[in-house]
Amino acid sequence: MNRLSIEEFKEEKKTALIVVLDNVRSLHNVGSIFRTSDAFLLEAVYLCGITSTPPHAEIHKTALGAENTVDWKHFEDTHLAVDELKTQGYTVYAIEQAKGSTLLPNLKLDKSKKYAVILGNEVKGVQQSVVDVCDGCIEIPQFGTKHSLNVSVTGGIIIWEIFMKLAP
User: Fold this and answer.
1) pTM above threshold 0.90
2) Which residues, other chains included, contact 136 with Cβ-Cβ below 8 Å and sequence gap of 6+?
3) Which parts of the chain register pLDDT below 70?
4) Alpha carbons 162 and 40: distance in angstroms, whole number
């Protein structure tokens, strides 16, 4: 099936995208984000606040080993992750419904730049103080009676769309 080995994955050119998890509670959601990040060759996953870190059996249950391929880093506070990303030249977006947010289909990206997206807590979303220091917000249009998606579903949609916009 032309799958990369762990060593080959580590050497492969990565998509210029880092996913930041802001106090995500569910270890299954964390594992799912790792697995999606592996599928689309993301640079890293930043785990912030109460977000659990590998190694953990419940993360592994959904990550299926992607926690061993995708680079990750833990930050006690999401603001520290954002500060580091901005220092390294990343454009940082919160994935949040907010006044002035950019609808995902309207998002324009520059293939020469690096990006990070922040996914928030399952109940509270991205902390407002974190949203305030981001370069903008991206919103997934929704048309039904619900106005939120599971964080791992949101991550899958966002990662895929950004991957497609940054692909050569």
Assistant:
1) yes
2) 93, 94, 100, 101, 102
3) none
4) 10
Q: What angle do CA 116, 166, 106 make, to 5 degrees?
A: 80
pLDDT at residue 28 in the model: 98
- Beta-carbon contacts of 98 under 8 Å, excluding residues fewer than 6 positions away, are 131, 137, 139
Distance CA 37, CA 167 (A): 15
d(C-alpha 106, C-alpha 109), whole Å: 10
156 by DSSP, 3-state: which? helix
> Residue 83: what pLDDT?
98
- The rounded distance, in Å, linking the Cα atoms of 164 and 98 is 24
Count Cα atoms within 13 angstroms, Cβ side, for 118.
Answer: 34
Give the model confidence (pLDDT) of 147-157 as tens digits: 899 999 999 99
Question: 20 near 119, Cβ under 8 Å?
Answer: yes
The predicted-structure confidence for 44-73, as pLDDT tens digits, reads as follows 999 999 999 999 999 999 999 999 999 999
For domain 6-166, the CATH class is alpha beta
